[in-house]
Amino acid sequence: MKITDAKVFVGGPKKNYVTLKIITDQGVYGLGDATLNNRETLPAKYLQDFLIPNLIGMDPRNSEDIWQFLYRGAYFRGGPIAMAAYGAIDMALWDIKGKLANMPLYQLFGGKSRDGAMVYAHATGADLEDLMDSIAQYVEEGYKAIRVQCGIPGMPTASYAVPEKKGSAQNYITDYTGIRPKVEIWDTDKYMRYMPGALAEIRDRFGPDVHILHDVHHRLLPREAAEFAKAVEPVRLFWMEDPTPAENQDALRLIRQHSTTPIAIGEVFNSIWDCNKLIENELIDFIRLAATYAGGITPLKRIVDLAGLHNVRTGFHGAPSHSPISMAAQHHLNAWAPNFGVQEYLVLGTPECDALFPSEHRMENGMVYVSDAPGLGVDFDEAEAARYTYAPGSHPVVRLEDGTMWNY
Ligand SMILES: O=C(O)[C@@H](O)[C@H](O)[C@H](O)CO
Ligand SMILES: [Mg+2]
User: Fold this and answer.
1) Domain that holds residue 46
2) 13 and 134 within one domain
3) Looking at the predicted complex, does its ipTM rise above 0.90?
4) Which-ligand-closest: CA of 161?
5) What is the pTM of this model?
6) List of residues 6+ apart from 219 with CB closer than 8 A
7) Is residue 184 in contact with ligand 1, taking CB distance under 6 Å?
8) Is the CB of 36 under 6 A from ligand 1?
9) What is the pLDDT of residues 239-275, one digit of tens each?
10) Same domain, yes or no, for 10 and 113?
């Protein structure tokens, strides 16, 4: 069996999804997602110019050897652009394997450990009152876990991923359009004074059962993060996410020494080498890589297995930048993983997205139910894809009030 061709598409409804289609001499094809949010053309170019010409003629069933060839064979290893490109190839090869076996991928991993996988929604608000309304809506829709973010009184602009205007919270997505990033202003002192109390009010209002998550988005220094984690212990958060930028892994040890608040990290990690020590030293509680940025199913499954040895549960990234293809890869891992925790979920459900990526995966009452179709269980409509073109975007940047650059 041989790979005869592969094609890359860039575009989609409100997102520049990078979709790889690998074609074989036996009529079976596989799909992969290489979407690197706001830098989408880079993995696409790497695929087109270097990787696809190498794939032609290879046996697609040897997904392990192909992954090793890509990763080790690059000489300059890893990084988000390369790993997203390898991720798309690896997903597509698993898709082909599943179709050849006539089994959904979760069966190849070891079958189902659960029927539905819990997801979390994003509730946001220009202020706390606005956020409360947004949470109430998600609770009503049946979500069991909700990430909560709100504007901070006195903060010069809306803080991370929070709408400026009241009432625009539902389905709010940060505006990334344009090459030049928008600038947000951050004030740690105001955040530290306000947010723990706001989280306590949310717990009081919604009771003990709803899982409350909060994303600090790399904004705090290690000592501040430890203080925050300690202060919110009575709230019993499901997790505190990205408390500090994880280049400094010792920060996670400092936080652990001071608090029992569960810590989630990893949405910007690319490999097992970014998190193996955090996992082995049991400094974190949830690992958040994505099937794209982690380089596909092959390496992500290894991370999940390592995490399982150390009581670290999964909480895969699921921002709207992930196409239904990588989300499907994660749905299959989530159905199988004995150490599944939760799945971030924002992407599916629009008619345009469903038309471009038809599938039987479904979300109901805050749970995802994985499709039983062979392989990934997602298709790609090339005629639909022709409607979309690439539009550049950029993550916002953050500055302190005096202009100093900070961490987004
Ligand atoms: O946890 C999340 O979903 C966010 O941190 C997003 O991934 C971030 O804004 C980049 O798009
Ligand atoms: Mg995050």
Assistant:
1) 3-106
2) no
3) yes
4) 1
5) 0.97
6) 160, 186, 188, 191, 398, 406, 407
7) no
8) no
9) 999 999 988 999 999 999 999 999 999 999 999 999 9
10) no
